[in-house]
Structures are given as C-alpha cells and as structure tokens.
Inverse folding.
C-alpha cells in the first residue's frame, strides 16, 4: 500500500516536469509562429506582427504564458491549431485511431516474436537458435525503420509491381484494404521493437533458470515443458513487462517515421506537419500526449507487477 | 575524465614494456571477442575513410555527370550514380563526415553533461536529486526523435544544432546510469576515506568517483553512438538534417532520391547499408565492451 501511494504520487511531479519541458522546448525558441504564419506576406510591418502576437497571447512574459497554458490543459483545453483553426483535441481525436491501430499491431507482433524466440534462446543457450536469435535482434536494432521501410516498398514495387493502397481506410469500412495499409509499417515497427524484448526475455529466463525452485521442480520429476510453463515463464515476466512499457516512447517516435513513409494520417504524421509549420499549440499538445501515454503505461506496468508477481508487496 | 597520470618515480615498469603489454592485451581480447574486434575494425575504417574522404572518394561528391545519370553500380561507379549523375559511393564517403561528426559530437555532449550531472546529483542527494530525477523522467518520456525534430526545425539545420538536438535524447539515459553507479561507488571505503581526510566534494567526485564509474559510462556511450546515427539519419530522411546538396547519410535516402528508387534501387541500399553497418558495429562493440568490462552482465 505504501509503495502504491509512493508510486502514484510520483506521477504528479513528473507530469509537472513534463509540462515545463514541453512548454519551454516548444516556445522558448527563436522564430515564433507569427513569423511562420506571415511568411507568405513579408510586407507586413512589425507593428502589425505585434498586434497578432498580442491577440494570440504571445507578448505576455513566458512564465505568465506557461501558467495560463497549464490552467487550460488542466481543464482539458489544449488550444487550437494555428493553421487549421480546429482545436487540438479534434485533431487528436481524428488521428488517434490510425496510430492506435499501428501501435497495437506492432506491439502484438513484437511480443509474439520476442517471447518465444527469447525463451527458446535461453533454454538452448549457446546453440545455433541462440546465436541466430541474437544476430536477428542486434540486426533489428541496427537497421533504421526508414531504411527498412524504403527497401521494402522499393523491392515490392520492383518485384511484384505492388504498392500499398494510398491513404487510410478504417478497418470497419474495408478490412482487407485496411490491412494492406497497416501490415507493412506494423511489421517493421514490430520487428524493431521485438529486438530488445527478446534479449530481455532471454536474460530474464536465464536468470530464473538458475533459481533453486527450478531445481526443485526438476528434481520432483516435472518434465521440461511443465517446468517451463509453470515456473520459468511466470517468474520471468516482470522485467519483460518493464521493457515493453519503456518501449512506448520508441513506438511514439517510430510512428513519426513510418506514418510519413507509408502515408498514414496518424499522430506521428500530424506531429511532423505541426513541427514543419511551427504550429506549437499542436506540437505541445502532441508531445504532452506522448509523454502522458508513456508515463501512464509505465505506471500501469509498475502496478501490474502485483498481479504478475504476488510476492511483491505493494 | 581520464585517470590521473602515473607519478614519475614509481614501481611501474618502463613505458616500452607497458605499451607492449597493451598490444598483447589487445590481441588477447580480440581472440576472445572476435565479433567485437571486427566491429572495432569496421568503426575505425569508417572513421578513417571519413577523415580522409578526399583520398578515398573516387569522384567529387557534388560534381554532376552529364550523360551519367542513374548508372548501375560498376567498376567506375561502385554504388552507381544518382539522378543528376553524381557518384553515390563518393557521396556516401563524404556523407560519413557529416553523419559521424554530428553523432560523435552529440554523444560527447550528452555523455559529458549526463555523467557530470548524474554523478553530482547522486553524490549530493537530497532535494536536488529529487528535482533532477523528475526532470530526467520527463525527458525520458519524450520520444527522442520528436524532441530532435522540434529543436532542429526551430534552431535551424546547422550541424551543431543537430548535434545538440540529438544530445538531449542521449542525456537522460546517461544521467540515470551515472547516477545509479555513483550511488554504489559512493559507499565504497576509498570514497569514505577521501571524504574523511577532508577532500572537497568537487575533488572527491573528479578524482575518485568519476574514474570508477568510467566502465558503465563507456558502454552507454558506445551504444548511444548507434542511436545517435539512427536519429541523425532519420532527421536527414525527414528533410530536417544537413542541407542538400551537401550529402549526409540520411538525406541520401530521403528527398528526391525517393522517386527514382524503382529504376535505381542502389540509391537506397547503398546508403542504407552504410548506416546499418555502422550502427551494427557500434552495437556489437558495445556488447563486447559490456562483456569485457562488466563481468556481472556476462552472458545476458
């Protein structure tokens, strides 16, 4: 219980720190949105620019702007995009299903590759399976997703004259078309993520195999399969969960590249466009979202330890 | 932070003997860790050919070749030519200059600042430690590529700004490692001894703590080099890296090249190979260093 309170109460100051970092990162930099908005009209005078700044609240001191912004965010108001004039919340809501599907598919794929591969590599330590798994995972983290994505798109087009259908079709509208659009980016992101999960699985399983209770289980005559299923896997889940939680930031970053490359209109693409246009209410909203998702997932992971491992006293 | 130089009059053997030993030690390590040794050779070769780019490159990386557009790889053009007839091999060699320099600079910035801050907050502790820990958590929660994109688009696409933007992603990871190992080292008897004879905090941190947390920091630094290259080239790919026509590994793949790939797939696999091989070597080297320097992690 003590741990529960401590862990949850850490969330608040960390979110506060996130808001400070996000705010100053996006706003305390040279070249503001007004310059960018009026880039098409270079003959506008500095006086007129100042009027626009005042209207947007950009001429207040930074600290004042920060407090105002946090106040609004607390009420669920993330402001409006400087360019589309729609609220950041509307923009997010429209894009979230795309990124959500991509992230979930990638995560599912990553775990379904990494868990068996890592476990087998540990059980058959120093066998060829182990070496191949190690090579695959280290190659997985070494080939950047934009290289992998471009390669796959190029050679599919050369060999099979096939490219994924352009744009985004919701899965409810046309399952097949939707899968054609999502399978490749999800596979690329998923294999990339599976690299570190499978390594963590391997070392976690190895660690558990050294424990006394495994020897006990073996000496009371359980078969190898029973030992693995009943004792090894359950006990090695904790570190695996942790690393999967920590990957949320990687998923968020990965979607920027893959959504741009595969033309998917998700959060990552929105972020990219927002950054190019210096649409900082949008960029602030999105980075805040990314950080909140990351922190929440990791909070849930920490709390889930209790479920996975009853020995841990929360 | 290098270890303090050996005092002149000591029991150390003369310099020649020591350097011979260093050699035989290196050879012994290479025998034990052949993969790491190969990786080290690849890394060195890349760095040397980037430094000596004018000697290694077969063509001027910016010179267009009329009538030489989109030539397939040949003895004349190892990796073919691009849409306006520039030699891809030479562009990769020159691109390595930018990409390696930016990534090494970013790692130096991130690792130096991260180590100093991590060691300091762990050593001093208290409220300072708590505040910094929350800030580090916050930085960790932000995807590195997003932060780098935002910073580069705001500051501009100069190599030094790109390096700083990448360093911000490396920094929190280094702080965490430095902090946790410092917490262990702090309780060691030799640190206690240094404090008890009245050593100043700054002196104790510089002379006793930093040299002893060097190994884990070196491991993080090596693997950070790999991720720095990935972020640098991703920025280039997204059009926010080094300004064309100056080649960098990322902008060779992004930009205009994308529309010619079906006719000229070497435009993607050649630079892709350079990037992946470099990152792979850094990762393998990091693995080997981890095995050598940190026996506790051996085999994991």
């Amino acid at each position: 219980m003590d741990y529960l309170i401590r862990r949850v109460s850490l969330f608040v100051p960390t979110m506060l720190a996130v808001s400070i970092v996000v705010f100053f990162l996006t706003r305390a930099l040279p070249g503001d949105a007004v310059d960018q908005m009026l880039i098409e009209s270079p003959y506008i005078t500095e006086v007129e620019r100042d009027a626009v700044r005042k209207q947007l609240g950009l001429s207040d001191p930074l600290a004042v702007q920060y407090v105002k912004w946090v106040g609004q965010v607390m009420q669920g108001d993330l402001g409006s995009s400087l360019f589309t004039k729609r609220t950041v919340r509307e923009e997010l809501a429209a894009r979230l299903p795309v990124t959500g599907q991509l992230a979930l598919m990638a995560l599912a794929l990553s775990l379904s590759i990494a868990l068996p591969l890592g476990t087998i590599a540990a059980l058959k330590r120093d066998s060829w399976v182990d070496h191949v798994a190690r090579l695959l995972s280290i190659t997985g983290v070494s080939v950047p997703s934009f290289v992998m994505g471009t390669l796959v798109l190029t050679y599919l087009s050369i060999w099979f004259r096939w490219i994924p259908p352009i744009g985004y079709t919701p899965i409810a509208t046309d399952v097949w078309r939707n899968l054609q659009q999502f399978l490749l980016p999800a596979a690329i992101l998923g294999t990339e993520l599976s690299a570190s999960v499978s390594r963590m699985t391997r070392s976690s399983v190895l660690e558990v195999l050294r424990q006394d209770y495994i020897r006990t289980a073996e000496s009371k005559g359980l078969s190898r399969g029973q030992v693995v299923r009943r004792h090894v896997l359950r006990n090695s889940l904790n570190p695996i969960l942790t690393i999967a939680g920590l990957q949320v930031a990687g998923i968020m970053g990965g979607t920027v590249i893959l959504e741009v490359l595969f033309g998917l209109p998700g959060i990552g693409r929105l972020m990219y466009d927002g950054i190019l246009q210096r649409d900082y209410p949008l960029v602030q909203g999105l980075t805040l979202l990314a950080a909140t998702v990351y922190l929440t997932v990791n909070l849930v992971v920490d709390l889930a330890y209790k479920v996975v491992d009853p020995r841990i006293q929360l | 932070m290098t270890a303090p130089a050996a005092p002149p009059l000591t029991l150390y053997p003369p310099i020649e003997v020591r350097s011979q030993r260093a050699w035989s030690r290196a050879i012994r390590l290479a025998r034990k860790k052949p993969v790491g040794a190969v990786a080290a050779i690849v890394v060195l070769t890349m760095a040397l050919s980037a430094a000596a780019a004018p000697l290694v490159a077969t063509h001027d990386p910016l010179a267009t070749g009329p009538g030489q557009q989109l030539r397939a790889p040949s003895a004349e053009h190892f990796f073919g030519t691009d849409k306006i007839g520039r030699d891809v091999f030479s562009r990769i060699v020159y691109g390595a200059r930018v990409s390696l320099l930016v990534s090494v600079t970013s790692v130096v910035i991130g690792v130096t600042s991260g180590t100093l801050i991590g060691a300091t907050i762990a050593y001093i502790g208290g409220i300072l430690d708590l505040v910094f820990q929350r800030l580090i958590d916050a930085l960790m929660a932000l995807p590195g590529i997003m932060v780098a994109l935002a910073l580069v688009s705001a500051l501009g696409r100069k190599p030094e700004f790109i390096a700083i933007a990448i360093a911000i992603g490396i920094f929190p990871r280094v702080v965490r490692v430095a902090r946790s190992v410092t917490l262990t080292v702090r309780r060691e008897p030799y640190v206690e001894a240094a404090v008890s004879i009245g050593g100043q905090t700054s002196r104790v941190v510089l002379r006793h703590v930093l040299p002893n947390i060097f190994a884990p920091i070196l491991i993080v630094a090596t693997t950070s080099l790999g991720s720095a290259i990935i972020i640098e080239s991703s920025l280039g790919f997204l059009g926010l890296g080094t300004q064309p026509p100056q080649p960098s590994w990322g902008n060779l793949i992004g930009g205009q090249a994308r529309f010619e790939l079906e006719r000229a797939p070497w435009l993607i696999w050649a630079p892709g190979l350079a990037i992946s091989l470099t990152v792979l070597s850094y990762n393998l080297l990091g693995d080997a260093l981890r095995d050598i320097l940190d026996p506790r992690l051996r085999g994991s």
